Amino acid sequence: MNELTINLQTGSKIPLYEQIYNYVKENIQNGKLSSKEKLPSTRTLARHLEVSRSTIELAYEQLMSEGYIEAEPCRGYFVAQIEDLFAWEPERIREEEIPAREKEIFRYDFSPSGVDLKSFPYNAWRKLSKESLVADRAELFRLGNSQGEWGLRKAISSYLYQARGVSATPEQIIVGAGNDYLLMLLCMILGSDYKVAMENPTYKQSYRVFSNLSYQVCTVNMDENGMLVSELKKSEADIAFVMPSHHYPLGTVMPLKRRMELLKWAEEKPSRYIIEDDYDSEFRYKGKPIPALQGYDRKEKVIYMGTFSKSIAPAIRVSYMVLPYSLLEGYHKRAEFLSSTVSRVDQLILQNFIEQGYFERHLNKSRALYKGRHDALLAALKPLQDLCTISGEHAGVHLLLHFPELEEEELIRAAGKNGVKVYGLSEYYVEPPKKKEAVIMLGYANLSEEKIKEAVRLLEKAWRPLKGSRR
């Protein structure tokens, strides 16, 4: 063995030689250092641990005096044979894997968070991965820019301007592994003296992040146009977290007038901001896409967030945040010391994926694919028109079914008995809604058109008798 990596506590009351002695002794006792195994020389270990050679000699002398190691002339130090003298009983470590909680298996799963991975461009991604690593590029394996690589940020900046009307320079963009990380980073930048308002219902993961970071979090009710600005004003919140392009889970698309009202609210006080979560704006099936709220911001009030998890694949784990210039100084002061959580290799692959046109082609293919499934689902649901109404069908990859005469739990239970997994809207409410209504969410991204038709037939079989039982 050439090295022993020991975490020495220089500020500890325990002398350094004693820390080294304890480390070696414990590793011999628990079998991590076996008998006859060679230890590093005093000179080598002193250089590795950056301590004086006399410190190592003191530790080794103590170990030799207690019989843990032996010194052989011209050969060095070796672990002594002690297994036959004493049977050590190291602390038992549970090695068997803790079994995961069994999940109920369904024939069809209308998950609203699904993504079609069969359409993922594996060949293109494999090609770009090979090209990124074909040359000996040592710099790729060093720590890069904490905001993310310049090339990727430039590619994201160009894409956002063309596709979403977002005005952002590469300097304003921060790349991170998922929106949760970026929200935590944002909290470091802003500090904790803020009250956050979230729509009700909302994306619970973001609500948990803010709550666990000790923010004051409140909910604001919505109408068919999104967050009610009148209620937002009463909440005394400083930050509004909204999803204007496609609300999750309601599927609401916020009209321009409401967006302007939100911006006006933010401009009334210097400390107010809007966090715009634009998680799946790429998928819209009716009308012309409305540009991002950030594109209308002239007072640097909108913090824009986006992700490639929906448009490419969840495992890509690349999200991005566009900070107003006014918050960049706070980032450099309070959070720039944190390294980027996305590897430079993955960033280079994604950059080339965007710049070489693969991303645009993949998006066009995905839009056509999801549009076909969207239309197939709407057609299959027509026989259920006497039971429910549909909303949220103009964008995204899920829609909602409203049942005025039935209970949400009984709908979910009946569907499950017929092998179909569906999801209730109630689990997305932080505060219970004033009007109790049974609403079922159906996601269609990871089901083929044929499976959608068959699954809806099973849903009709499950739900039709429920209406009759209420008469």
TrEMBL record:
* Keyword vocabulary terms for this entry: DNA-binding, Pyridoxal phosphate, Transcription, Transcription regulation
Example of a GO MF term: DNA-binding transcription factor activity
Q: Which CDD domains match?
A: AAT_like, WHTH_GntR
- Classify the source by domain of life: Bacteria
Q: Which stretches make up the HTH gntR-type domain?
A: 14-82
Protein's UniProt keywords contain DNA-binding: yes
The record's family statement is: In the C-terminal section; belongs to the class-I pyridoxal-phosphate-dependent aminotransferase family.
This one is known as: GntR family transcriptional regulator
